[in-house]
Amino acid sequence: MFTLTKPSAKAIAQQIAAAEKLPAAAPPLLTLNAGLAPEQHLPFAFAHDLSRTKIGQGPASFAAVRQAFRRWAMFDLGWVRVANTDAPIVPGQLVAVAAHTLGLWTLNLSRILEVVDTPLRFGFLYSTTALHVEEGEERFLLEFDETTGDVAYLLESVSRPRSPLARLGLPFTRHYQHRFARDSHRRISELARPMKARDIENAI
After folding, report:
1. pTM recorded for the entire structure
2. How confident is the model at residue 2 (pLDDT cuts 50, 70, 90)?
3. What is the CATH number of the domain that holds 97?
């Protein structure tokens, strides 16, 4: 699962094809709407991470980050990216995430289990497959509060290392999990405002 070179388009396609017949390979610990239940007992070695930040204000901001989610922008972090960005956010969809850490590349396959798409909430819950260095579930959720106008981004995960190398380097694994959460919140916050005319002109 760890390589010295960036995964090629062919390698990505092969991994996605190999994962097509694989089910989600993690215990069901999260729900999309409620996350981890307070009384839920985590299996051995599982870690729980939860972060929620206000990222914007108003319906236009919510619409902007909803579109950013559909482009997988919350993974567009430089050292992490979704390799199959044309993948729709629908139940059953495979998501291939490429990461570059400590000079090594990994390509990790997860399957979307649940999706919510309403005027006030948008997001999904996915579970890792056997083609992932971690075992667990993660939910990504945007929320719009009609009363206050606040737009919030919630990220929650339960996981433990699946790969022997990830287990050996557990402190580094946890460091990069925390870094991903921080960077993802920062990235979505940057995209939470609708594009102004000058931004559109600069993008052309």
Report:
1. 0.92
2. confident
3. 3.30.530.20
